[in-house]
Amino acid sequence: MTDALFIEDNTVVQDRIQELLRKSREFNIVGAYFTLKAAMNGTPKSDPQLIILDLKLPDVRGTEGIEALRQKFPMARI
Q1: How many other C-beta atoms can be found within 10 angstroms of the C-beta atom of residue 51?
Q2: Which pLDDT belongs to residue 62?
Q3: Burial label, 33 (beta-carbon count in 10 A; 0-12, 13-18, 19+)
Q4: Contacting residues for 60 by C-beta, under 8 A, at least 6 apart
Q5: DSSP-assigned beta bridge partners for residue 27
Q6: Residues 32, 58: contact at Cβ < 8 Å?
Q7: Fewest beta carbons within 10 Å, which of 9, 25, 44, 54?
Q8: How far is CA 36 from CA 16, 23, 46, 65, 66, in A?
Q9: How many helices, marked H, and strands, marked E, lie in the chain?
């Protein structure tokens, strides 16, 4: 099972991602956040192996978010 964390500011999209990951039974959701700041300050259940990132968040765009996440979770695939 792959530990997954996702960051998405749209509630409908976030709910759908959670639903799809749970149905697949290949993923364990360790964190779900609406902003990059919340993800950076949050404490996931464990370090994620996979991060799903919305590239148009209200507090950060694209590569800035990827760089910050790589520093906090260097082993995760984004």
Answers
A1: 23
A2: 78
A3: buried
A4: 35, 36, 37, 68
A5: 2
A6: no
A7: 25
A8: 19, 25, 17, 7, 10
A9: 3, 3
Find where tokens 């996931």 sit: 44
pLDDT tens-digit map of 51-65: 999 999 999 887 899
- Rounded Cα distance between 10 and 54, Å, is 9
What is the Rg, in whole angstroms, of the alpha carbon atoms belonging to the chain? Answer: 12
Q: What is the pLDDT of residues 16-70, one digit of tens each?
A: 999 999 999 899 999 999 999 999 999 889 999 999 999 999 998 878 999 999 9
* Nearest alpha-carbon partner for 44 in 29, 34, 59, 26: 29
